[in-house]
């Protein structure tokens, strides 16, 4: 048995920032104004809105108007945010056992930034399938 300690919210924030900094320049520039937030779980209102009963089912969420649907003459109504949910990501990491925590955080972050850029889940999965 080990005495390993689960990464904290601050650890997740650092790993997410490192993943963001490692993105290719054009991708990072396009996503530049997005705010990255780390929480243990999605709040009850978000879970209810998405009709999710188990908070462990949601590892990340993009909240905002994607850049393809914004009014080009003005700013977005509110800042775009990417939420990463620590406990569900940790749970997936433990269950899978085949991926590092930094890699999993980067995966969820990139997926949610894809939504910020206007990509659908199907678009993102197609891109991921091309990489495999």
UniProtKB/TrEMBL annotation:
Q: Which Gene3D superfamilies match?
A: 3.30.2010.20
Quote any Pfam family the record assigns.
Answer: Zincin_1
Q: What is this protein called?
A: Metallopeptidase family protein
Q: Which organism is it from?
A: Brevundimonas intermedia
